[in-house]
């Protein structure tokens, strides 16, 4: 009988000790809302500092194609701070509007015309994420030669917020008879979106392009709507960092872009 009583008391003591230990752990691991907010606020300040350093590093180069190790490192650091980047950037309100290209890796997979436009340091290049008169989402690539002269290439775009049924998965890389005419794209498993970054991809299909010289319009020399070309003029951009002033994107041809929001 005495042994049974001692056993019961021992079990009660162990249970009490375990509960106290668990409660102490709960207290030790508890973070007040103020502490949690302070931690995020600090990371937001760090991200802003990294953005400042990245913009300065690109400006110091004086060349949006100079692929320095410093710029690459800063891009990677910002991309790693996904917790303070604007979430679901492909459908976030901040993504819409005009963005000015300040840096690109201009991968060898780009088309000759794309390379020529990007290589021309004299001309500002913009990417507009806007809507047409039919409320379709557009991604417009604009090379501004002067106030009245520009090249504008429009692509119909698709996101979870503005889906476009035509934009099925791209099937072919894009090289035609071994020639890199329109650029070579990632396809298949290599082209899958990152599941850790939901709603970060903007799919698009090029639809129309024009050189505008005042009142004179000259069509872009690629028949985007030709059925035989429709698959190879599909593409996408993955937004890997987004704030209210800076966007980092990676394209389907392996190119990295850094863009600043225009006022």
Count helical runs.
4
Total strand segments? 9
Strand composition percent: 25-35%
Low-pLDDT sequence parts: 1-38
User: In CATH, what is the class of the largest domain?
Assistant: Mainly Beta
> Could you tell me the mean pLDDT?
83
Major sheet: arrangement of strands: 1-2-3-4-5-7-8-9
Count of spatially separate domains: 2
Rg calculated over all Cα atoms: 26 Å
Overall outline: globular
Helix/strand order, N-terminal first: HHHEHEEEEEEEE
Q: Which class do the helix and strand fractions yield?
A: alpha+beta
Major sheet, described briefly?
8 strands, antiparallel, barrel
Q: What proportion of the residues is helical, as a percent range?
A: 25-40%
Return the CATH architecture of the largest domain: Beta Barrel
CATH-assigned fold name of the largest domain: Lipocalin
First CA to last CA: what distance?
85 Å
Mind explaining what this structure looks like?
The protein is of the alpha+beta class. The chain folds into 2 domains: 2-30; 89-261, Beta Barrel (Lipocalin), CATH 2.40.128. It has 4 helices and 9 strands. Strands 1-2-3-4-5-7-8-9 form an 8-stranded antiparallel β-barrel. The longest helix has 29 residues, at 33-61. The protein is globular, with a radius of gyration of 26 Å.
């Amino acid at each position: 009988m005495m042994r049974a009583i001692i056993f019961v008391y021992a079990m009660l003591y162990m249970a009490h000790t375990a509960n106290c230990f668990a409660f102490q752990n709960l207290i030790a691991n508890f973070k007040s809302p103020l502490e949690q907010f302070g931690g995020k606020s600090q990371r937001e300040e760090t991200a802003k500092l990294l953005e400042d350093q990245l913009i300065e590093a690109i400006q110091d180069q004086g060349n949006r194609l100079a692929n320095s190790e410093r710029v690459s490192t800063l891009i990677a650091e910002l991309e790693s701070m996904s917790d303070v980047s604007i979430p679901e950037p492909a459908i976030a309100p901040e993504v819409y509007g005009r963005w000015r290209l300040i840096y690109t890796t201009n991968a060898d997979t780009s088309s000759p015309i794309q390379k020529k436009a990007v290589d021309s340091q004299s001309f500002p290049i913009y990417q507009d994420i806007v809507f047409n008169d039919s409320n379709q989402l557009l991604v417009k690539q604009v090379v501004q030669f002067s106030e009245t002269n520009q090249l504008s290439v429009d692509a119909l775009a698709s996101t979870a917020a503005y889906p476009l049924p035509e934009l099925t998965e791209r099937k072919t890389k894009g090289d035609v008879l071994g020639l890199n005419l329109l650029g070579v794209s990632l396809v298949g498993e290599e082209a899958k979106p990152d599941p850790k970054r939901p709603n970060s991809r903007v799919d698009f299909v090029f639809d129309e392009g024009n050189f505008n010289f005042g009142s004179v319009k000259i069509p872009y020399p690629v028949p985007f709507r030709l059925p035989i070309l429709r698959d190879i003029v599909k593409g996408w951009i993955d937004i890997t960092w987004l704030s209210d002033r800076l966007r980092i994107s990676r394209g389907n041809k392996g190119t990295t872009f850094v863009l600043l929001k225009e006022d």
